[in-house]
Amino acid sequence: MLTVYSEKHRLRDAKTELHGGTFVRPFECPERAEIVLARVRQEGLGEVIAPRDFGLAPVLKVHDPDFVRFLENCWEDWVAAGGEGEALPNVWPTRAMNGKRIPRSIDGKLGYYALAGETSISDGTWEAARAGADVVLTAAEHLLSGQGQSAFALSRPPGHHAAADQYGGYCFLNNAAIAAQFARDKGVERLAVLDVDFHHGNGTQNIFYRRDDVFFASLHGDPMDAFPHFLGHADELGEDAGEGFNLNFPLPPGTDYSRWRDALDEALARIVAFKPGLLVVSLGVDTFEQDPISFFKLKSDDFADYGARIGTAMKAVSVPALFVMEGGYAVSEIGINTVNVLIGFEGA
Ligand code: OKP
Ligand code: ZN
Predict the structure, then answer these.
(1) CA proximity to 71, closest of 60, 61, 82
(2) What is the pLDDT of residues 18-55, one digit of tens each?
(3) Which member of 161, 199, 200, 220 is catalytic?
(4) Which residue has the least CA distance to atom 9 on ligand 1?
(5) What's the alpha-carbon Rg for the chain, to the nearest Å?
(6) 3 state DSSP class of 95
(7) 169 CB under 6 A from ligand 1?
(8) In the chain, what are the domains?
(9) Whole-complex ipTM
(10) 240 to 304, 322, 343: CA distances (angstroms)
């Protein structure tokens, strides 16, 4: 399996995350990608290539231009306004103050474009996020040229919480959605996105919620108990043309592999019935029992087993799979767990 990787992910190296009322070093740190890459090499998964530059056009097919401009200029604007630490929002257009104008000041803009308050914007964040989009696009292009049944986009920072005009939950550009839309524009008529990260892929769901050409399925910690708290319920089925093309499996604290696997099998059956031309897997391994910010109980061997289940289901109907790296914060095991999924898929 081909892996696409860019060293530019290292430019996303924020010093602060707001966590439990204090600032901590972000859980989403550069070592994550380095350790996954080392494991890819150690296991001989296949060739590792750098991305090519796709420019912003495929990003702008998913994200609003004003949001992209905000991300591009945020750090500069923050510094110019006298920010001493990293850029964080502190006021939002919530229910009681639901204004529609985009403020001029950087403090107002941060609140307008942020969907969560833990994620600092730092010097280099934009460059890393942009390179991350090139990583998934390069991997998608490779698959679309008919080479292989699978590819791995080792992108960082993650993307699935990012909506068309909102960032947060460590995510800035929605890599999985950008890849799916790119494939769509290259002639793939129907796509499925399977999100196995512990957290609900609220951004991806929101981007495709009114569409019947992209089926979104997600297994995640119940939002009643887990981030992102406000989306990911089982009754969110899609709207308008998209009704019936969104599928959520919110699962309770302590969920173990047998329960998680039942949900996966159901999601895979629905995906197969949808007859996609390509599957995008939002691959977060924060379902691991030792993950520091999550509450599922998967063990390292379970990752290989579910990779094989995805492989068996997709190979039976000749659907290629694009794996896109999302979360996973048990850093010392992130390589083993991630590559177990990919090896499981290949062996199916
Ligand atoms: C990103 B991905 C911190 C609560 C905020 C944010 C989690 C973002 C996960 N006390 N947590 O889906 O792995
Ligand atoms: Zn996650």
Answers:
(1) 60
(2) 999 999 999 999 999 999 999 999 999 999 999 999 99
(3) 161
(4) 169
(5) 19
(6) helix
(7) yes
(8) 2-63+123-347 (3.40.800.20)
(9) 0.98
(10) 37, 27, 38
